[in-house]
UniProtKB/TrEMBL annotation:
It comes from the Bacteria. The keyword Coiled coil does not apply. Residues 5-158 form the VOC domain. This is Glyoxalase. Gene3D superfamilies: 2,3-Dihydroxybiphenyl 1,2-Dioxygenase, domain 1. It comes from Lysinibacillus boronitolerans JCM 21713 = 10a = NBRC 103108. Keywords: Metal-binding.
Length: 160
């Protein structure tokens, strides 16, 4: 038995178009997208751990889980990010704005080219620069950026 690679990182979002646009502006590519409902997702409710959970807020629907997915990938095809918007059931817990030292998974790190231009582009489109771009031991330029819904990216550019 061996692990071959990480297949994808999943991010649950409320505003799927905004988060998708953020990652496209960042440079990821759409691998696929669509709505997931019906028989397939009913079987998947057990895998998702959501069996029997109904929409608590809007009792207008008898449907169980239904969601929208956008699968993104890095230009080199080595890493994928799955964005998921649950239309039902909803989760009443609001989006958190964690600090970079909050326990749990807090950021996704990317090796990038031209970090200054990338940060400039992202901040023009509403991303928040959490830290200045700094040099780490003359090996990397590093910084943290917060995108929509509190998503934190660590950017690292190798200094040659």
């Amino acid at each position: 038995m061996k692990i071959r690679k990480i297949d994808h990182v999943g991010i649950i979002v409320n505003d799927l178009p905004a988060v998708k646009a953020f990652f496209l502006d960042f440079g990821l590519e759409v691998l696929g997208e669509g709505k997931v409902e019906g028989e397939w997702v009913k079987r998947m409710e057990r895998v998702l751990g959501l069996q029997g959970i109904k929409e608590d807020v809007a009792k207008t629907s008898d449907s169980d889980v239904n969601l929208e997915i956008v699968m993104l990938r890095t230009p080199d095809g080595e890493a994928n990010i799955e964005l998921v918007k649950f239309n039902a059931p909803s989760n009443p817990i609001s989006i958190q704005q964690p600090l970079t030292n909050t326990k749990g998974i807090q950021h996704i790190a990317f090796n990038v080219e031209d970090i200054e231009a990338l940060v400039n582009n992202l901040t023009k489109k509403g991303a928040e620069l959490i830290s200045d771009i700094y040099s780490y031991e003359n090996a990397y330029k590093l910084c943290y950026v917060r995108g929509p819904e509190g998503i934190i990216l660590e950017l690292a550019e190798e200094i040659k």
